[in-house]
Design a protein that fits this description.
Elements (H helix, E strand, L loop, with lengths): L39 H10 L10 H4 L5 H18 L4 E6 L7 H17 L4 H16 L1 H20 L4 E5 L5 H12 L3 E6 L16 E4 L2 H10 L1 E6 L4 H15 L8 E4 L1 H7 L2 H6 L12 E3 L2 H14 L12
Parallel strand pairs: 1-2, 1-5, 2-3, 3-4, 5-6, 6-7
Protein name: AMP nucleosidase
Enzyme class: hydrolase
EC number: 3.2.2.4
Length: 325
């Protein structure tokens, strides 16, 4: 008499039988034999090599097509958002500034080289212009030191009181963005870079936290991520890119599309020449109170004080010992 199989313990499911590997290949595991159809091999090869046979997420031409622009926009946002959430980055201090302003040592070297070239051909207008620009860049190179010192100071506070949940964020490029990432890097804090794909090759700066440098296809999604977690925006002297990012922020705050945040313009003498805010008020195209959307600073200490004061007055200090905000 056969023994009955013992019943499984009460409340536990029966173990499913383990599927055995097929010894004999399944019908679809081998192509049709040429013995059955001499042209079968060529036809199958053509099918396998046809772009239509590519799996959708492996079809680069499809993913880059006009029809999938919406999908690419979504991916541009989601990948970075996923990465920042994985690293538990909840808030950021964003720094903008020129890619063309290097550290003082490099700026002086370029200035000296420009003067040497001009000395060999003093009547050359192009060399004269290059010499003037090199001199002006050198005069602004102290902003590199200010950006680095500010980021180092803020980085220590981010790490100590933000619980690692506040990070320094830039565009990830050279110049003043590099300076800010470098300061955060030297302080041991998290340092984020949002790079962008451009027609010419570019490289991220070497002071970004591994896993926290992201490359975007769309400027719009990159700018969205600049502000998505921002608790402060610091704008150093810069060109079109810096102006674009600055005015995007001012517009969103002015129109109440985002919550207010401190916007600090570093280098009043530069900004008052670059943008005549008084003229805009006088012309009636912005209101007098729109000038209160930003403040000026000259040193790393002043930048920190502007940010701290703004958040304290708003009743939500940026740095909390618990790090859970």
């Amino acid at each position: 008499m056969d023994k009955k199989r013992p019943a499984p313990p009460s409340g536990s499911p029966e173990q499913a039988p383990v599927a055995q590997a097929h010894v004999v290949p399944l019908p679809w595991q081998t192509p049709k034999s040429p013995a059955e159809d001499p042209d079968a091999t060529a036809r199958i090869k053509a099918t396998l090599e046809d772009p239509a046979y590519l799996q959708a997420d492996e079809d680069i031409a499809l993913l880059q097509s006009e029809d999938l622009r919406g999908v690419r926009l979504q991916l541009d946002f989601l990948k970075t958002d996923y990465g920042l959430r994985t690293h538990d980055i909840r808030h950021t201090i964003v720094v903008f500034g020129s890619t063309r302003i290097p550290e003082p040592v490099a700026a002086k070297r370029r200035k000296d080289e420009a003067h040497k070239r001009l000395a060999k051909d003093p009547e050359n207008p192009e060399l004269q212009r290059a010499c003037e620009i090199a001199q002006r860049i050198f005069e602004k190179s102290h902003y590199y030191t200010i950006a680095k010192d500010f980021a180092a100071d803020s980085g220590r506070l981010c790490d100590a009181y933000g619980g690692g949940k506040i990070a320094l964020m830039t565009g990830g490029g050279p110049g003043l963005m590099e300076a800010a990432n470098r300061g955060a890097f030297l302080s041991g804090a998290k340092s984020v870079g949002l790079n962008i794909t451009l027609p010419h090759e570019q490289y991220p700066n070497p002071y970004l936290t591994p896993g926290l440098c992201f490359r975007f296809h769309y400027f719009a999604l990159r700018k969205m991520h600049f502000l998505h977690r921002a608790r402060a925006l610091v704008a150093f002297p810069g060109g079109y890119g810096t102006l674009d990012e600055l005015f995007e922020t001012l517009t969103l705050v002015q129109t109440r599309k985002i919550a207010p945040l401190p916007v600090i313009l570093v280098g009043r003498s530069f900004w008052e020449r670059a943008v005549n805010f008084e003229f805009l008020v006088d012309e009636g195209v912005i209101d007098p109170e729109d000038k209160t959307l930003f403040s000026y600073a000259e040193t790393a200490k002043e930048i920190r004080e502007c940010i701290d004061t703004w958040h304290v007055q708003a009743g939500k200090p940026l740095f909390r010992a618990s790090g859970d905000q």
